[in-house]
Amino acid sequence: MGERLKKLNLDKKLLLFTAIGVFLGIALFSGTAGALKATDTGEFCSSCHIMESAYESFTSSNHASLYCNDCHVPNNSLVEKLPYKAKAGMSHMYMNTIGANQIPKVLHAKASSQEVINNNCIMCHEPGLQNINHDSKGNCIDCHRTVPHNGGDYRPTEWFEPKQFHFADLNKKGKE
């Protein structure tokens, strides 16, 4: 009978440790997923003073419904996104603390960032790109550098007025 109690006690401990492990796993996963999502937002990015003007111009652009990392980190897979985001985050933490005196007055995307941004532009706008000739430049940023930062909103004022904006009729061009 003594062995039976020991085995029952051992089973209870195993069950308890399993339940605690599952709970901690779920909590860790949820916390990590929440942290990853929170660090994608413009509010998080603008918490560093160097990004305040970029965030202000972004919030008034036609891309304001997106997260910063919809454009600025790879989005085709978590395998690419997580290491890129971790490296960029470590770099930003360094630059905003120890390397603060090295921050330039004007921020420009590095070549690796430009490639990611360009790929994300294409991923979102690919259906429209099939209708327009884009042979003039090497990548999206060459022509659309100010979208969505620095007032790169190319919509006319009529766009914002109900029933006032009409797309141009391309067939009329040659007839006038």
From TrEMBL:
It is found in: Cell membrane. It holds the Pfam family Cytochrom_NNT. Keywords: Cell membrane, Electron transport, Heme, Iron, Membrane, Metal-binding, Transmembrane, Transmembrane helix, Transport. Its main location: membrane. Residues 12-150 form the NapC/NirT cytochrome c N-terminal domain. Transmembrane segments: none annotated. The keyword Iron applies. Belongs to the NapC/NirT/NrfH family. This is Cytochrome c nitrite reductase small subunit.
